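ok posting inputs for the thiamine diphosphate job
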Amino acid sequence: MAAALARFLPQQFIRRDGVEHRLINGVWGIFGHGNVTGFGQALEEYGGRALPYLQAKNEQAMVHAAVAFAKTRQRLGTFACTSSIGPGATNMITGAGVATVNRLPVLLLPGDIFANRRPGPVLQQLEYPGSHDVSVNDCFRPVSKFWDRINRPEQLLTALPEAMRVLADPAETGAVTLALPEDVQAETGLYPANFFEKRVYTVERPPCAAEPLAAAVALLRRARRPLVIAGGGVHYSDATAVLARLAEATGLPVCVTQAGKGAVLDSHPGCVGAVGVTGTAAANALALEADVVLCLGTRLGDFTTASKSQFRHPRVRFIAVNIHPADARKHGAVPLVGDLCTVLLQLGRALAGWQVPAAHTVRIRKLRTAWDATRATLVAPQRGVPLTQAQVIEELNRACGPAGTVIHASGGIPGDIHKLWRSQATTDYHSEYGYSCMGYEIAGALGIKLGAPDRRVYAFLGDGSYLMLHTEIVTAVQEGLDLTVVVVDNHGFGCIHGLQRGSGGRSFGNEFRRRAGPQARLEGRPVAVDFAKNAESLGATALRARTPDELRDALAEAQMRRGVVLIAVETPADVRLPGYSWWDVPVSATSALPGVRAARRAYDRALKKQRFYY
Ligand SMILES: Cc1ncc(C[n+]2csc(CCOP(=O)(O)OP(=O)(O)O)c2C)c(N)n1
Ligand SMILES: [Mg+2]
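and the output
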């Protein structure tokens, strides 16, 4: 059965716009008794160049790498991930969450307990009371778009085609899990020869229906203050050029979600930057006043809608273009279900000759200019502070240029970089902010590099995220991948510490400090971690930078060097950028602390800003 799987996977292709791409570009794995003599053996015998094997150091990380690869390839290719049973398998569940939340394909092949049950409980089997039919792999069900357990070898014949269909479908894609009982992997199955013939899954570009299109066009033509929100779907549909032309022809302003960053470049006159909780003052002002919001390929998460407080025009209407029918109907939108690129072309034709009102154009220009000035003050030197995170972003933006890609996911970085980063290319910004999973950054950087070997990739992460998962540095060294890793050391879970204190709470449990005494809290001396030494020990070159000038030099040096280069920078945790919006994080209604009580009163007032559209 495992041999059949290894022979099937390299024959799967995906076609879009007449171009074919390999769907499964290799297998990431860590072997254990649950896969080494089954699928591992099959890969050794049948894997070859069409199905290379990459050895990970942590199962969660290998899923991150596959997911980042898929994002880089606009969902037109991914990897399979093989694990042993038990802990190796469940380590992949977080990665499955990342894939499914972000609608990115990945094929997960966890080993599973014996289908014949004879030797059980096998090492690493969790015995589920009341049923012998449940294993830990059932935990993958809610985080997978398709899930199956291959209890007999011939079940591959029906499971694999469906697994591939879901992976290749832009509306349905996400994690696909095929649990592989370790005995069945090694069993003989009968498979017809044509099962192993080349299969091509076509990504079609369906247009939206005429009626909702007409309704959307009528809304836009009447709009006084329309706004476009560009999400990740613009990238996946390869619609950035079409969007730029539509914005130019109509004067529509375009703001971007995290996944949509780069959908319009900052040099475009219609670009007003990031929107929502981590948005720019310009985009958020336009969003507050917008009477028609055209949502493109976005799932309208709370960071985009500022927890449903960002759109406050009393008669605001939404139009949503999405391949996913549920996303197209959020916020009571006029649903334009179809391929984003095709629907934008439809909209462009239907809106020919129409432009946003002149007063709106003036307003957009004014807000853009004001934001440029504000941004300049945010990245300027701060008195008494050698290096701020904003300055790190500015230097990184410069060094990265249009040919590089920065990747980030968690901590305080996403909020700051979403606002400050100037997109110089559609591909220079890779954000995982659907699951915002600490540990994605370095592993994901490997995925980008594998997906786009010509790009310089910058993994950008906090000290907390680095401590959680940095060991794929070793894998990058093994694979000879050039990566730059920039670690921002602020001695703790800085953004959560800020959230805690900003909500009236006292400092508690977020800094990297020693326990002050046996009964005391974590309030003693800071724990100093030497990230440079740590990275060196794993085979990276390490540099340190204390000022913007030193960082510029280090980034230039990193570009000259091969392999993994880590740059450690220190920034103060309490120097933070201002926000231009609100995020719904509930504050205790019963705390006795005056600070928390005041924060709760402010929270109750803020809740009144929320609007719900049906
Ligand atoms: C896997 C995971 N666990 C927990 C969280 C919650 N969380 C979000 S940010 C954060 C702190 C991150 O610390 P660090 O990487 O140092 O970034 P900083 O906040 O200091 O900028 C935590 C714990 C998360 N996003 N992902
Ligand atoms: Mg930190």
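notes: The pocket of magnesium ion (ligand 2) is lined by residues 411, 462-464, 490, 492-494 (CB under 6 Å). The two ends are 49 Å apart (CA to CA).
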